[in-house]
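Give me C-alpha coordinates for this 134-residue protein.
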Amino acid sequence: MAIDITGANNYFGASAHIRSESWTRLPLTRRIAAVAHAIRLIASRLDDDIETEATVAGDFPRHDAAVYEQALYMLETLATNESVKTFVLNSKQQGGSIAANIRTLPSSSSLETICLQALRFLVVNPRSVRLSRG
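Here you go.
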Protein backbone atom coordinates (compact mmCIF):
# COMPACT_ATOMS: atom_id res chain seq x y z
CA MET A 1 0.00 0.00 0.00
CA ALA A 2 1.38 3.41 -0.91
CA ILE A 3 1.71 6.34 1.44
CA ASP A 4 -1.58 8.14 0.83
CA ILE A 5 -4.82 9.23 2.48
CA THR A 6 -6.09 5.63 2.69
CA GLY A 7 -2.95 4.60 4.56
CA ALA A 8 -3.24 7.67 6.80
CA ASN A 9 -6.87 6.88 7.62
CA ASN A 10 -5.89 3.31 8.49
CA TYR A 11 -2.95 4.50 10.58
CA PHE A 12 -5.19 6.89 12.53
CA GLY A 13 -7.99 4.33 12.86
CA ALA A 14 -10.13 4.51 15.99
CA SER A 15 -8.78 1.24 17.36
CA ALA A 16 -5.21 1.85 16.17
CA HIS A 17 -4.24 5.37 17.28
CA ILE A 18 -5.08 7.45 20.33
CA ARG A 19 -5.29 10.62 18.18
CA SER A 20 -7.76 9.21 15.66
CA GLU A 21 -10.41 11.78 16.54
CA SER A 22 -7.97 14.63 15.94
CA TRP A 23 -7.31 13.24 12.44
CA THR A 24 -10.88 12.43 11.41
CA ARG A 25 -12.36 15.79 12.46
CA LEU A 26 -10.15 17.61 9.95
CA PRO A 27 -11.52 18.27 6.43
CA LEU A 28 -10.61 15.55 3.92
CA THR A 29 -9.07 17.92 1.38
CA ARG A 30 -6.74 19.35 4.02
CA ARG A 31 -5.74 15.85 5.16
CA ILE A 32 -4.92 14.83 1.57
CA ALA A 33 -2.85 18.00 1.06
CA ALA A 34 -1.07 17.52 4.38
CA VAL A 35 -0.06 13.95 3.51
CA ALA A 36 1.30 15.11 0.14
CA HIS A 37 3.22 17.97 1.78
CA ALA A 38 4.59 15.71 4.52
CA ILE A 39 5.84 13.21 1.91
CA ARG A 40 7.76 15.99 0.14
CA LEU A 41 9.10 17.39 3.41
CA ILE A 42 10.35 14.07 4.78
CA ALA A 43 11.72 12.95 1.40
CA SER A 44 13.76 16.15 1.23
CA ARG A 45 15.42 15.31 4.54
CA LEU A 46 16.36 11.70 3.74
CA ASP A 47 19.64 10.53 2.26
CA ASP A 48 17.86 7.73 0.37
CA ASP A 49 14.52 7.57 -1.40
CA ILE A 50 11.42 7.48 0.75
CA GLU A 51 10.01 3.98 1.18
CA THR A 52 6.42 4.07 -0.03
CA GLU A 53 5.34 0.66 1.22
CA ALA A 54 3.32 0.24 4.40
CA THR A 55 5.23 -0.92 7.46
CA VAL A 56 4.29 -2.60 10.71
CA ALA A 57 5.38 -2.17 14.30
CA GLY A 58 8.95 -3.33 14.68
CA ASP A 59 10.03 -2.18 11.22
CA PHE A 60 12.63 0.59 11.12
CA PRO A 61 12.61 3.14 9.65
CA ARG A 62 8.89 3.64 9.17
CA HIS A 63 8.56 6.34 6.55
CA ASP A 64 4.79 5.90 6.25
CA ALA A 65 4.21 6.44 9.97
CA ALA A 66 6.55 9.45 9.96
CA VAL A 67 4.60 11.02 7.08
CA TYR A 68 1.24 10.51 8.79
CA GLU A 69 2.45 11.92 12.12
CA GLN A 70 3.98 14.91 10.31
CA ALA A 71 0.75 15.55 8.42
CA LEU A 72 -1.28 15.66 11.64
CA TYR A 73 1.31 17.93 13.27
CA MET A 74 1.16 20.40 10.38
CA LEU A 75 -2.65 20.47 10.35
CA GLU A 76 -2.87 21.01 14.11
CA THR A 77 -0.24 23.76 13.97
CA LEU A 78 -2.22 25.55 11.27
CA ALA A 79 -5.47 25.15 13.21
CA THR A 80 -3.88 26.59 16.35
CA ASN A 81 -2.52 29.57 14.42
CA GLU A 82 -5.90 30.25 12.84
CA SER A 83 -7.84 30.05 16.12
CA VAL A 84 -5.42 32.35 17.98
CA LYS A 85 -5.40 34.90 15.16
CA THR A 86 -9.20 34.86 15.09
CA PHE A 87 -9.33 35.39 18.87
CA VAL A 88 -6.85 38.28 18.72
CA LEU A 89 -8.67 39.97 15.82
CA ASN A 90 -12.06 39.58 17.50
CA SER A 91 -10.70 41.06 20.74
CA LYS A 92 -9.34 44.08 18.90
CA GLN A 93 -12.60 44.64 17.00
CA GLN A 94 -14.47 44.66 20.30
CA GLY A 95 -12.30 47.47 21.64
CA GLY A 96 -9.72 45.31 23.40
CA SER A 97 -6.01 45.45 22.92
CA ILE A 98 -3.76 42.95 21.25
CA ALA A 99 -2.35 41.93 24.58
CA ALA A 100 -2.16 38.31 23.52
CA ASN A 101 1.41 37.37 22.88
CA ILE A 102 1.51 36.69 19.15
CA ARG A 103 5.11 35.56 19.49
CA THR A 104 3.82 32.34 21.05
CA LEU A 105 2.29 31.34 17.73
CA PRO A 106 4.26 28.69 15.90
CA SER A 107 5.82 30.36 12.89
CA SER A 108 5.13 29.16 9.39
CA SER A 109 8.72 27.88 9.33
CA SER A 110 7.75 25.38 12.05
CA LEU A 111 5.68 23.64 9.38
CA GLU A 112 8.97 22.81 7.67
CA THR A 113 10.36 21.23 10.84
CA ILE A 114 10.03 17.49 11.33
CA CYS A 115 8.00 16.95 14.49
CA LEU A 116 9.14 14.67 17.30
CA GLN A 117 6.40 12.13 16.63
CA ALA A 118 7.69 11.71 13.06
CA LEU A 119 11.35 11.70 14.07
CA ARG A 120 10.90 8.67 16.28
CA PHE A 121 10.11 6.65 13.15
CA LEU A 122 13.11 8.01 11.23
CA VAL A 123 16.14 8.08 13.52
CA VAL A 124 17.56 6.09 16.37
CA ASN A 125 17.97 8.12 19.54
CA PRO A 126 21.02 10.26 18.72
CA ARG A 127 21.95 10.48 22.39
CA SER A 128 22.13 6.76 22.91
CA VAL A 129 25.55 5.31 23.56
CA ARG A 130 26.35 1.73 22.68
CA LEU A 131 28.69 0.04 25.12
CA SER A 132 30.49 -3.15 24.34
CA ARG A 133 33.11 -5.31 25.96
CA GLY A 134 36.04 -6.30 23.96
